[in-house]
Write a structure and sequence with these properties.
Chain B: Residues 10-150 form the CheW-like domain. The complex is a heterodimer of chains A (674) and B (150). Chain A is of the alpha+beta class and 674 residues long. Chain A has 19 helices and 21 strands. Chain A has five domains: 8-140, Up-down Bundle (Four Helix Bundle (Hemerythrin (Met), subunit A)), CATH 1.20.120.160; 145-262, Alpha-Beta Plaits; 291-343, Helix Hairpins (Orthogonal Bundle); 345-525, Histidine kinase-like ATPase, C-terminal domain (Heat Shock Protein 90, 2-Layer Sandwich); 530-673, SH3 Domains (SH3 type barrels), CATH 2.30.30. A five-stranded mixed sheet of chain A has the order 6-8-9-11-10. Classes of the chains: A alpha+beta (674), B mainly beta (150).
Amino acid sequence: MSGSLPDPAETYRQEAAELLDMLEQSLLDLDHRPDDRDLVDTAFRALHTIKGSGAMFGFDSVAAFTHEFETAFDRVRAGLAPCSRALVAAALRARDHIRGLIEAPDATDPAVGDTILSALHAAVSDDAAAPAPALPPTAPESASASPRTWRICFRPGPDALVNGTNPLLMLEELRGLGRARVTALLDRVPPLDAIDPESCYLGWEVMLETAAPRSAIEEVFLFILDDAAVRIEPPSDDTAAQAEPGPAAAIAATPDLAEAEPPSVVPPLRPGRSDPDIGRVGGSLRVQAERLDALMDRVGELVICQARLHQLAGAGADPGLTAVAEEIGRLVSELRDTTMGIRMVPIGSLFTRFRRLLHDLSRDLGKPVELVTSGEETELDKTMIERMADPLVHLIRNAVDHGLEAPDAREAAGKPRAGGIRLVARHAGAEVLVTVADDGRGLDAERIRAKAVENGLIAADARLTEPEIHQLIFHPGFSTAREISAISGRGVGMDVVKRTIEALRGSIEVTSRPGHGTEVTLRLPLTLAIIEGLLVRVGRGIYAIPLSAVEECVELPPDEASRGGFSLLSIRGALVPFLRLRELLRTGTAPDPYQKVVIIAAGEHRVGLVVDQILGSHQTVIKSLSRLHADVKTFSGATILGDGTVALILDVAQLLEIGQAEEERGRAKLREAA
Amino acid sequence: MAPAATPDQAVDVLTLEIGTEVFAIEATAVREILDLVPVTEVPGARPFVGGVINVRGRIVPLVDMRLRLAMPPAAPTADTRIIVLDIALEGEPTAVGILADRVNEVVQLDLGMLEEAPRLGLRWQPEFIRSVGMRSGRLVVLPDLERILT
């Protein structure tokens, strides 16, 4: 097998994972709309493909188990059994079991599988009837149709074996449909010395006597790509209804003519069909994530290089060079946008994962939950979405476990018994806001306060505003759960959520109304790779500030310019603390005569950064600092400027924190002085 | 950075000078040698890794061994070079730039001639040194870079 081809087993795992997700979604939907035929069909198709390709790629235990699953489920498809809650529950467990069989076959217990299967069969059996026997998936249809004879001519492409196709398994699958007579077509086999052992020269003709419909036969050939030739000729008695009339029908009726000249030109089976299991969905293409990462890196380097070219062209007086530099600048920025666009994934893919989580949480905690999602189409960088998953899982668990009251308590409070969880995503400028909200009891400020005092986080007489108290829940080691539960009390606190979000250069806000619920909002940048930055000079150093955090720039009032230490600045009526970056970064230089203040904000917090000079905006390709600088908290990364030198990126969250701490100290001093 | 001993127990090393000392760094760890490039100061970092440089689009920390090994500081000269190394720090492959007053040559060091660092007679902590040897009548020091940098 050539090295450039992906491992077929790995491809199967990926595809199966998607199919399992599809199955899970359909099952969860069926829980609400048990009569939806489309959902039943979708689930069935997913099962069938998992089974079929599982057998093809050697996942025999998967195929065997899924076959039983499919058999049970087929009774629902055939309308012989209702799609009950018990069935959905058993089917969801069966789906998890399949995943286990694929991902960690050694760790799965066959006994568990058997239990699940009996539950499945019990869920679909009629009152008296025994569990459905393991019949081929199409068996129920045979009740109405009588066997007919199909002529199937099948020639895999020369690369079929290299691509991992096993014709033998397909023939076996055909045999499973009914009585089959298989004849090998040897006419294209070259002389021995010309045979390439990895090529496939054979073709087969199968006379299949089956009651299964044409679609069942076609499904056998689902995985044969365009390079294979498959022809399925209908039984002679209904050729009139089919698209292939003429001599073929006569041949079909006469099995003895199997050795007759096979068709030389046969159309591929349904080319361009849009089944996810072929790895190509409609006009889309599956690409490995690492390749996209590599592409993004290259584009990042190109952006840096282009900035340099721009600077050189600007310094020279060659109009031709300037024109080319401008053209390249335009192309690079388009290429950057396109590349970032490729990496954008709708957040809905993440939201759907949470439906199952809520389903299970609701069952385990005995709290009925209604999930409302909106903004699924909001797009975010793929890496961002992946890294957001864990924090969101934690927030949702918290909301259901701690936020929502027990059904009886809700009823007593005049709320519907089912708790409401809202998952909302939306764009706000260069940020995406993701909100997890519940309509539960809300945060108990008194209890949080008491707990914080108990844990020594705040002094017993500390005066804190409500938002400040809410922020305490993000303090490491803080957990308001009165008793450790299996759901939330796992030692992973909200502080981990906060740290994860901050590592993504995002921030987190909480609002809560007692009795009405809690809302946690994550603010995240659209992308991790390239941001718009504001370049400033402090002393001799040049630094970048993420432009999305910059609210405005003002001149430092002359009476403040000469002073040092803590100060507040009045910005349109509000007092904003400010940090003199020259002091913070210990530049040891004299201040510029006209210093500027860059006001940065995240959520409700604002802080001014005093800089010597504002240089302008810059396409900032973010590079991380090495481990040797892990102890430096003031910077979140670095970028490369047009002249090839490095500029450090100021960490907005960190500066806001320093600003607030300074403000606390400053105010305390003022109080002492007063 | 375990010494990759050849069958005849010799190892290729790059020799360089910092102050009055001669150091040897395994040649396989050396990615490239650069002339002095503009260094961006990192305020708040430990003094011996006080800067970063741009190496072909990568941000690489620049290490001044003088400050780590308690040698007197010195201004760069025309011979000053930056040696870019790929080393493992706490198990993570990391690119690091090291300032050297002069880069000499790649030589073969006979592993059998190397000795453990003497406890006395050197100005710096013995754990910073993996081993010492003699070459052309001068003491050559094989530093333990992972210890020096962490």
